[in-house]
Amino acid sequence: MHHRTPDRSSADSSGRPPASGPAPTRRGLLGAAATTGVAGLAVGGAGSTLARTALTADSGPALTTLGSTAHSFHGTHQPGITTPVQAHGHLAAFDLAPGADRRLAAGLLRRWSATAEDLMAGRPTTEDTGVARDAGPSSLTVTFGFGYSFFDATGLAEDRPDALAPLPAFSADTLDARRSEGDLWVQIGADDALVAFHALRALQRAAGDAASVRWQMTGFNRTPGATARPMTTRNLMGQVDGTNNLKESDEDFAGRVFVPDGGEPSWMAGGSYAVVRRIRMLLDDWEELDLTSQERVIGRRKADGAPLTGGEETTPLELDATGPDGRPVIPANAHARITAPEANGGAAMLRRSFSYHDGFRDDGAPDAGLLFVCWQADPRRGFVPVQRKLDRGDALSAFIRHEASGLFAVPGGPRPGEYVGQRLIEGR
Q1: Which terminus of the chain is less hemmed in, N or C, by CB atoms within 10 Å?
Q2: Is the pLDDT of residue 23 over 60?
Q3: Which listed residue (95, 241, 378, 394) is catalytic?
Q4: Do the beta carbons of residue 100 and residue 63 sit within 8 Å?
């Protein structure tokens, strides 16, 4: 996905921020935003999780505005879905305590919602540890979802969505059950690492005895402003990753990503389904390939992400193009060909992933790859058909391992005064 970066209103003509003056404090950043009314803030609504006044498509961030960007906790959809992907992320699953019931779950979700609302506004919380005291909200988003087992634990099995049925087994999976699934899922993103960690710790503390961490993963992306102009990010294989991702401007975007009003179940209106996969990249093997071989595996040029059939990054794939030898220019098993919507009956999803690096394995290979997160209105029409096709013959499969997996129902955004999931828990 493209990063949108804050306006350089405080920079000089060279594009650099002012060289003098005191560094902004957390209070000062928030005060400046409040004074201007809307600068750096996104408030409510389906598309308003994008901080449009602080993020533009053709300029980089001024150091004094990166921290002040805030997103609203309330809205038609939860934050962290259409929000531009941040530089730092945490994914975590929690299991409810043994003997938990609906009342305990409601109390937990109330505390979590109140904590997330304060954190995203840059306010201290009851669980504040002071870690983020000097920073603004830094584009923080907190997103909550329910796993398949949540509904059994809370006696709500009759309200479990059909679309939350467990994902089918894929032949290439080597899944670790201890790092998969979970009753509750939390996604945290921020453009400051301390702000992101502070949110994770605050939510863990707010869980109290009601729930415990099942697994947690930490990821990262390119920091806004790190490139001379906004660009599609690269993954740890060095490939431009996210060129053909769904865009809010697409005519059918909402229908592909969000459960519509009147959909089933009704409490999921405005919500989405997140598939989460920890995908380790075999970087030692990948890096032994020459450039031409790498590009044939992906189906795109490594330098700029353009299709092997030519053009620019956003040029459509010419899947029927053949070379002088009569063979497809984009190989039949190239990743770009297999994942193309036109090759999957139109199946598509919104990908919003983080890279990760968890040190080195015993053989010296990096334990690194992609924390894959994709959003869709129904995983049976989005992720599942595409992954089945990848499972049957994707050239990239030789260089990756799917090691953890989860599927979560992410309800619509709470209204002011509501907590996340209230319409499920309380039936309204």
Answers
A1: C
A2: no
A3: 241
A4: no
